[in-house]
Specification:
132 residues; four-stranded antiparallel beta sheet
């Protein structure tokens, strides 16, 4: 729903579509930001598969308000990250004009760690590093 000049929203328009059984909303953790620095908001999501794999995909926005087909920029095999222990947030943490993603990770042994995924020029993400 695009905002008009008065701040009111227009009618919803389909901006991205995929066939059945491709994505399950309860397997996704979303965050938004301008990940490629073009001045438009994009969507990123971590996806947790039933077999334990996790990936990070980005839907870059188009000038008409829609979204491009997602690209996956990071993934790990089962057992390396637990989807249920991740809390993502976005912001421009390194000051380069592109929003990055920080993930608060709650380890099973009581430790916590903050991981940072810096955005690249294509709107995807570099491998994470422990930032706290």
């Amino acid at each position: 729903m695009l905002a008009g000049p008065t701040g009111a929203f227009g009618e919803p328009a389909k901006s991205f579509s995929v066939g059945p059984d491709k994505y399950w909303a309860d397997h996704m953790k979303f965050t938004t930001g301008d990940f490629n620095g073009d001045g438009r908001g994009d969507v990123a999501a971590f996806y947790g598969y039933d077999d334990g794999r996790v990936n990070l995909s980005t839907w870059l926005s188009k000038a008409d308000g829609g979204f491009n087909t997602p690209t996956t920029s990071w993934s790990v095999p089962a057992g390396e990250w637990s989807f249920g222990r991740m809390t993502p947030r976005s912001g421009d943490f390194d000051g380069d004009g592109r929003d990055d993603i920080a993930v608060w990770y709650d380890y099973a042994d009581g430790r916590d760690r903050l991981w940072t995924f810096t955005a690249n020029q294509q709107g995807g993400f570099n491998d994470p590093f422990a930032s706290w």
